[in-house]
Write a structure and sequence with these properties.
The structure is a single chain. The chain has 806 residues and is an alpha+beta fold. Helix content is 25%, strand content 26%. The chain contains 20 helices and 38 strands. Helix 3 runs antiparallel to helix 11.
């Protein structure tokens, strides 16, 4: 919200500098993002800005886009000024900067020779004066001021503008008068009342003779006001109106549209003006749009409505997307003589949803979506009606169409004085609290142990409880009076056992050389294609956002890997070809009840071949074996020693992947990333990934407390068993069988060799297993060790058809 201080001072003059006023507003909760100034008024600078009259404008002899103008600026002789604006012409009153003038953000202006012609000044556009961003042409002044008149007497070129950040719960602050009310509260300066006087109704007939009104969706439009004006003269706005509208950040269109925008900026109530003669019927019908109903809006864009949107229609078609933007075919133009003026209240959620679905936002929608009171339209209608008569020469037709649902009276809340000190921690005198509420527009009166406070309609959506009144008192009284003290905490919070284990795993991952990453939970829907998932893969069924910020954040993630792969690609683009990343997070799958099933995972990614820091340093591999070792180590950290099994995930290499299981329950998946997937995510180096299902892993965690085992004072015996099996037998199954057969005396089984070739025959493979045999309580004899080895051999032969290899 941009608030010109000259406009604000029409309603309240706090007699403070802009900087002091900005600080007061900031401290009371209205954030002033910046203070902007226009033409500096120091050192006589304003004397260099004049009203000029263009006597002649001829083509430059050596430049197609330049014109040589003869401009009267009130001196004995006119000046020659070269101008490149396409709309400059003889007979215009224009703003002129003379040599020596200092424009916003520029050095002092001098004379300049342009293609051989010396220019003794500059004819100005709105952007050059800081009035707006419009720079397509020079300003044509709608004034009869004499040439040489100081420009600041005609245009608000000396202006200070507050750029405010208004919170979503304060629609009242999206208006100049709403900010004036805030200034009154924090300074106590006199707040002048708005002039809501009505003009004389001198138009022909009554409003019912010109138009009919029917509201078919009162739940979405609780109030709709309409008036008719005839004999309207559409023309450029007078300079004061144009200056106010453009200083507030809006583009001047014509006097009718500028009046509606002016009143919206002043009161916070959007209005819309229709060309009544362009409407079919003529009728106004407020209804839900039909599915697929088309409308071309004022920005010349064809848009398609749906049944959840509200439209303001004539007898045949939509004339306005309610609360957002009008249709081009009923736009007020130079040919308009009769207008219909609308001031309405719409359901804020409907306006917000429509705006998001259409990707169309406006100053109007920004106000409606916050929620406006149905008591506000009459105020705006009265002010706009008077201005249309004064500025546009219009005649107001007697009568007002007013379709309104029952309007609730202003609520009254009880405020206990004791609550103020209890909540704020400081004592606010009772008369001070009463004064603050009165300045804010509330109506406080003594009641019981405090006040009965009637809430004004401008604040009825924001102030609904006693605590809200306390907040109002606190922010205006000044939070700087509240001492800075640490809160008194009762008890201490602590992590649950599951949370403690997740933290333990995260720390272990860091110890293993991984850096923690945080990726977005919102991802593109195309990630399923990038991961090579089949069309019937259930992970393609995702939770979609109703109003995504972009296509790149359209759905909730079903996998943790895309985020890590994107992070790896980003690292590689920034000269970090190798690395290790992990993330603890959740995935989301839709459920029939409309909710999402959340699962927590630890996902890790190793990518690239690490560069050696020293010529003797080992080259650490990025492959299935290294990833499996890390995954096994992470599982073991919580007491789970998983088995291994085959896996078929499309995003892993077809044969370089496996899953880790606790019994028949998968707890983790490990694999080298498929080359096509790497290419889809712009990862240029090999990568291997680990995905641990934390819910399944922690459910498999032993419940009994770990027991101390003496690993140092008793000897460990190592025995190797080489067995020949079919090459279809999973090595993990061999390891599991050996560990199970060895029982408590086999502490660990490792694979130490693998051989395939002529000596074992086609379709066979030799696997060497190393057994660590130990009894923590005693030294084993050779006979006991041999018994364990024989038992393991027999189990391998019986379960897997293994033949022993000497």
């Amino acid at each position: 919200m941009r608030v010109p201080l000259s406009w604000l001072r029409d309603h309240i003059d706090p007699a403070r500098s802009p900087e002091d006023l900005a600080e007061l507003l900031w401290n009371s909760g209205t954030e002033v993002e910046s203070i902007e100034s226009r033409v500096p008024e120091t050192d006589g600078n304003l004397e260099h800005f004049r009203v000029g009259f263009v006597r002649e404008a001829v083509q430059h002899p050596d430049a197609d886009r330049l014109r040589v103008c003869t401009v009267d600026v009130g001196e004995s002789e006119p000046r020659t000024i070269v101008c490149g604006a396409p709309n400059v012409a003889a007979g215009q009153h224009v703003p002129v900067a003379l040599p020596g003038a200092v424009l916003p953000g520029r050095p002092p202006l001098g004379t300049a020779k342009l293609r051989g012609v010396t220019s003794h000044g500059m004819i100005l556009s709105a952007s050059e004066l800081g009035l707006s961003d419009e720079s397509a042409g020079i300003i044509e002044l709608a004034t009869d001021a004499a040439p040489g008149t100081r420009l600041d007497e005609v245009l608000p070129i000396v202006e200070t503008v507050f750029d405010l950040e208004v919170t979503s719960n304060r629609p009242d602050c999206q208006s100049v008068y709403g900010i004036a009310r805030e200034v009154h509260a924090v300074t106590g300066a006199e707040l002048r009342p708005l002039d809501e006087s009505e003009p004389a109704a001198e138009g022909p007939g009554t409003v019912d003779d010109h138009v009919t009104l029917r509201v078919e969706a009162p739940d979405l439009c609780p109030r709709y006001l309409a008036r008719v004006f005839t004999d309207v003269e559409v023309a450029p706005s007078p300079d004061w109106l144009r200056g106010r509208v453009e200083a507030a950040g809006m583009r001047s269109i014509n006097n009718v549209v500028d009046v509606t925008n002016y009143v919206m900026l002043l009161t916070g109530q959007p209005l819309h003006a229709f060309d009544l003669d362009a409407m079919a019927g003529p009728a106004v019908v407020v209804r839900r749009a039909t599915e697929g109903e088309p409308v071309t809006t004022l920005d010349d864009q064809a848009r398609t409505l749906d049944a959840d949107m509200l439209a303001i229609c004539d007898a045949e078609r939509p004339s306005v997307i309610a609360g957002i933007m009008g249709a081009a075919d009923v736009e007020v133009s130079g040919a308009t003589t009769r207008i219909l003026l609308e001031a309405a209240t719409f359901d804020g959620a409907t306006i917000l949803n429509t705006s998001l679905r259409l990707g169309l936002r406006s100053e109007s929608s920004a106000r409606f979506e916050r929620g406006l009171s149905p008591k506000l339209p009459p105020r705006a209608m009265a002010i706009a009606s008077r201005l249309l008569v004064e500025v546009c020469g219009a005649k107001m037709v007697p009568g007002t169409l007013d379709a309104a649902a029952p309007i609730e009276p202003e609520p009254t809340l009880e405020l206990r004085f004791s609550q103020i000190e209890r909540v704020l921690g400081i004592e606010v005198p009772e008369d001070r609290a009463t004064e603050i509420l009165a300045r804010l527009g509330f109506a406080p009166r003594p009641h019981a142990q405090g006040l009965a406070v009637t809430v004004p309609f401008e604040r009825s959506g924001d102030v609904t409880r006693e605590i809200d009144l306390v907040e109002e008192i606190g922010r205006v009284h000044g939070y700087e009076h509240v001492p800075a003290e640490l809160p008194k905490l009762v008890g201490t919070g602590r992590r649950s056992p599951a949370q403690q284990q997740v933290v333990r795993l995260s720390r272990l991952a860091c110890d293993l050389g991984f850096n923690e990453a945080i990726s977005y939970r919102f991802v593109p829907e195309g990630d399923a294609d990038r991961l090579l998932m089949a069309d019937d893969d259930p992970r393609r069924d995702v939770v979609r956002l109703e109003h995504p910020m972009s296509e790149e954040m359209a759905v909730m993630r079903q996998s943790m890997l895309p985020g890590l792969l994107r992070a790896a690609a980003r690292n590689q683009r920034h000269q970090r070809p190798a690395g290790r990343l992990f993330e603890v997070g959740r995935t989301y799958a839709p459920q029939p009840d409309g909710m999402a099933r959340e699962r927590e995972f630890l996902a890790a990614l190793m990518f690239g071949q690490p560069v050696r820091d020293h010529w003797r340093a080992p080259q650490l591999p990025v492959d299935i074996h290294a990833a499996t070792g890390i995954a096994t180590r992470l599982c073991a950290a919580v007491g789970v020693h998983p088995g291994r099994g085959a896996n078929q995930a499309p995003y892993f290499h077809p044969v370089r992947q496996l899953r880790l299981t606790d019994g028949d329950t998968p707890v983790a998946w490990v694999g080298e990333i498929h080359p096509k997937v790497l290419k889809n995510f712009d990862v240029t180096e090999p990568a291997a990934a680990i995905v641990i299902d934390l819910g399944a892993l922690l459910a498999a965690r032993p419940t009994e407390a770990p027991q101390f085992v003496d690993l140092l004072t008793v000897p460990v015996s190592l025995r190797d068993i080489a067995c020949v099996v079919d090459d279809t037998v999973a090595v993990g199954d061999l390891v599991a069988t050996a560990a199970d057969a060895g029982g408590a005396l086999v502490r660990e089984v490792r694979v130490v060799d693998r051989y395939a070739g002529e000596q074992v025959g086609a379709g066979k493979v030799s696997i060497a297993l190393r057994l660590e045999i130990v009894d923590p309580g005693a030294t084993l004899t050779d006979e006991q060790i041999s018994t364990v080895v024989d038992t393991v051999r027999d189990a391998l032969e019986a379960r897997h058809g293994a033949s022993l290899r000497e």
